[in-house]
Amino acid sequence: MKWHFLRFLSVYVLIWGLIHNVSGELGNPYTILGINRKATQKEIRQAYMQLVKEWHPDKSKSPEAEERFVEIKQAYELLSDPDRRNLYDNKGITEDDYYKKPDRQSYFTHSPLDEMFGPHGAHFNFQENDITFFHKLSITTRQFDKIILGKSEKTPYLLFFYADWCFSCLLSAPHCRKLSDKLEPLGINFVTVHTTKEPNLGRRLNIPSVPCLVFLIDGNSYVYKESITNIAKVIEFMKSKFPYKMVSKVREDNLEEFLKGWTDNRVRGLIVSHKINIRLRYLVTAFHFRHRVAFGMAETSGIRAKYQVPHDMDTVLLFNENVSFPMASITMRDIPTSTLHNIISSNQYLALPRLSSQRVLDELCPCGFNKPKMKICVALVTDDSADHDLHRQAFRQYAQKFPYNMEKVRFAYIYHKRQAHFLNALRPEGEYVEPLLRIVMFWRRDTSRVKYDWAPFKWDIENHANNSHEKLAESILRLLKSTENFPYEAYVTDLFDEHAVSLIKKIFINFKHFMQSIYNNLSKEQILPAFSVLGTILFIVAIGYLMAYLVENEEKNIKKMKEAQSGHNNNNSKSTYQPELRLHELKSEKYNGLVRLLKPGCRTILLILDMQSRQQLLPPFHRAVWPYRRNKTLNFAYMYIERGLTWYKELLQMSLFEERELNINPRNCVGTVLSLNGHRKYFCVFHAKHTESKRKGKLSKKKEGIKDCESGAFIGFNSDLDDSESDTDEVLLEGNLLDGLPNWLDRLFEGTTIRYHINYWPEFPIK
Fold it and tell me: Which positions, given as ranges, span the membrane (predicted)?
C-alpha cells in the first residue's frame, strides 16, 4: 500500500511540475507588472499605467516596445479580472488556457488529486460551473411571448440555451456570468432557456444544439455559432446585428447637415469618443431612443476641437432646433448607460415637437381622466411647406418663454394635410373652422375621447400686432382652472404614422430576415447540398435563357436575310413610309400659329363644322386633303362654328364693301372650307351649295345696287337676292357636302379660285 501511495504521489508531482512549466512559458503577470501576489487592484492599475507610459510603441524607441506593451496589457487584463486572477493563483493558468488544453491535459487538470489536495478538501469544486446560475435566470415560452418579445423593441436580449447533464453548459457558466455582468450595465438583458422544459422555443429559434447563444433585438433572433468562451467575439456579433446605420458617421463636411436634420422630428445626438470603434453602450442607447433621437459618431479631430472635448474622455451632445450649441451634454471617460438614459430621457423632444404619430401623442399628451392628471396639448396647425417656417419659429419662441405651468401644458405643431382625419374630428358640429394657422387646445380624457377648444384668432408672424400672446395665455389659463371650460368634445382615431416604413422597404426587410434565418438554420454539413441545389437551379435557368436568346437571335437573322433579299429584288421600289397627316383644331391659343403668323407661301386649309356633323365631315375631309400631306407649306385644321361664329361673321363682313349687317345661320356654314393665307391676308371659300360657277351666273343677273362682284352674296347670306334665285330645289345631305372639295383643291393650287382680301385678321374669341 505504501508503495502504491508513493507511486501515486510521484505521478501527481510530475503533473504539477508540467503545469507550472506551461504557466512559466506563458509568463508571470506579477513579474511583468513588477508587483507581488498580494497587490490590490489600485496598485495593479498604478503599475500598469506607469509601464504603459514607458513602453507604449508611440513613445518608446526600443525594438521590443511593441512586444513588451502587449505583455503588459495581457498581464493587466488577467490580474484586473478577479475570476481569472483566482484561477491563475490556484492553478497557475489563465482561464482561456484552461479551456483550450487538449482533452488529456484537461483530464489531468481536473483529476481527483486536484480536488483531494486542493484548498477545498476532498469534494467536487463546481462553484464556477454551478447549474443553479442558469436556473435563476431561466424563462418560459409564455414569458418569452408576453414579455421578452415585446420588450426587445427597445431592450436587446441575449438568450442562453442549456440542458441538464450538459458538461459543455457547465463549462460555459463562468463566461455566462461575465457576459451577464458586462452586458447588464450596458442595457442588454441576459436570460436563459431550459431546452428540455421549453423544447418549442428552441425549435422556433432554430437552436442547433446546446449550449447556444441567441441575440434577440426588435423581435428578430440571431443564432451565435462561434465559441462562447470568446466574449469579445460575442460582443462584435451583437454589434453587427443592430439596425443598419443606427449611428451615422459625422465629419466636418456633413456636421451641419446632420444637426439640421431635426425636421424628421428627432433630436440630434452627437457622440465624441476617444475610441475608434463605436462602443456597445452607445449602440444600445441609440437603439433604445431611435424613435426620438438620431445619433451620429464624430470621426474627425476637428469636431472634438470645436466642442472642446478632452482626448481621453467620451462626450455625448444633444441638439434641438438650435444647432449653434447643445441643449445638454455629458463628458466622462466611461459614461454609464443609466446616466445616458437619464440625460436623453429628459431631453428627447424638440423645443416644438410635431405630432407625427400616435406614439408621440401618447408621450407628449398622455391620457388623464381627472383634473390632477390633466395635460393640455396646444398645437399649431400648419402645412408641410417652407412658407410656414416663420409661423412655427414664432410659436416655438412663444413655447420656450411660456411663463406658466409647463408640466400641465405641452406645445407642439401638426401638419394639416397629413393629419386631416384627426383634425376633421376636432371641428365643432354646425360650425365651420378653417384650421390652417389656427391653434387647437385639447385634453385627452382617454385614448379616443378628447375635449377641445379653438383659439379665436389666427397665429400671425407679427404676434404682438393682435395681442396673440396674451390672448393665447388667457385661453390656456382658463382651461387649466376647470375641465368644464372645454366647450367641445369629440371622438378621434389614432394619428397617421408619418414615420412608418413603406411597403417596399418592409418587403426588403422581411426578405433580409428570411435569408438570415435560412443562413442560421444551415449547418456546415447542409451548406454544400444547399449550394448544390441552388447551383443546379441557376444552371437550368441559365441554359433556358441561353436557348431562348439563341432562338430569338436566329429569328432576327432570318428576318434580316429576307429583308435583304426583298430589298435586292426591288431596289427601285418606293418607300412604304406614309407621312402623318395631322388635323388641328382652330382655337384661340393656336390662332396665331395657324393664321396670323403663317410664313410667306404657307396656307391653312380650314373645315367648318359643328358637334353634330363631326363624325360625318372629318373622314371625307381627311380623304380629300390626304394627297397633299407631303406639302410642307400647308396646315390642315377644323373649327367648330359654335366656338368661332363671331370670328367667321367678322371675316365675311370685312370681305364686303358695303357696311351692312349679315344674318348668318350657323347650320348653313357647316361644310364650308376656307383657304387662309395669313401673310398676304386673303382667303378662298368652298361651299357645296354655292359653287363658284353658280356664283358668277348669279352675280351677272344681280341688280345694279350691288357694286362689287365679291360682295359675299355667294354663300347666300345676302338678303338682296331673290328667293327664286336660290337653290332651294337642291337638297344636300351632310355626308355629301364635301363631294366637290377635291376639284376645288385642284383649282385652288392652280390659282383659279376667287380670292377675298382683307385689311387685317380679326380676333378669335376666347372661350
Answer: 527-551
